[in-house]
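Lab manual, section 2.4: Encoding a predicted structure.

Procedure: take the sequence of the chain (112 residues), apply the prediction step described in section 2.3, and record the output as structure tokens. A sample record is shown.
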Amino acid sequence: EVQLVESGGGLVQPGGSLRLSCAASGFIFANSDMCWIRQAAGKGFEWVSGINSDGRSTNYLGSLKGRFTISRDNAKNTLYLQLNSLKTEDTAMYYCAKDNTRGRGTQVTVSS
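Recorded output:
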């Protein structure tokens, strides 16, 4: 069974940083492309970033490129998302996902 457990969210001031983690189990992580998605309150899901299985290819939502960095450690079965220069509009529940499966998410709140 695919399991994805996100952590690292929290309350941060505008301009601050957070590092999200996603612990994966139940599948061969090193063979799997992964992504992060987010959902703000009252809105639909939004794809944020993706990374291929060996970590050499990454993609970002255009407006986030340069502020967010996706990475992975296949030895630790863990996916990461570094969030820098956070803005209030980045407030959302962040999920890691594999195909159609996502975790329970971690809340990021950007507020002064």
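Check your result against the sample. The chain has a mean pLDDT of 97.
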